[in-house]
Amino acid sequence: MSSLEQRVRLIEDRQALQDLFHGYLFAVDSLTDLDGMLSLFTEDVSFDLREIGLPCLQGHQGLRQFFADVFGYMSHHAHYGTNFTVRQLDGDTASACAYVIGSGVRDGVQVTLHVKYFLDYVRTPAGWKICRFSEAPILPMPDSLTQVHRSH
Q1: Domain spans of the chain?
Q2: Domain spanning 3-148: which CATH class is it, in words?
Q3: Lesser CB count within 10 Å: N end or C end of the chain?
Q4: What b-and-e string marks burial along 139-149, b requiring 16 or more CB atoms within 10 Å of the CB?
Q5: 90-122: per-residue pLDDT in tens?
Q6: pTM for the predicted model, two decimal places
Q7: DSSP label at 54?
Q8: Using an 8 Å Cβ cutoff, are 30 and 96 in contact?
């Protein structure tokens, strides 16, 4: 592979990683696109929300159960991503982080979170997929988080 081909592939890979990040934000905000959201992740994904007081989910089945519930009880979602940074990109693996402001409404109770996402990626025959996802608070977690996610 020539130097130019390597640079083009690097640019394409970085864009694909960022597109997956944004794809997740759009899918989770739709409150309906569960299959579209799952298509962004590997079958054995680890999706860890423990640092914000929610569960650690394993695989598509864990995500499907959790988000089917969330999509059922939330009336609104809005997630805004910024500061997306590829931290490592080496062949068929990568990692990135980003800041996210996420808001939602359930039964008139609103929650707004300021968190940092950590994403690990792997290149698959179908393209890049997220294989590990976690988030951590940037600002203190609001009490309303437990109100809107009271069943988890």
Answers
A1: 3-148
A2: alpha beta
A3: N
A4: eebeebbeebb
A5: 999 999 999 999 999 999 999 999 999 999 999
A6: 0.94
A7: S
A8: no
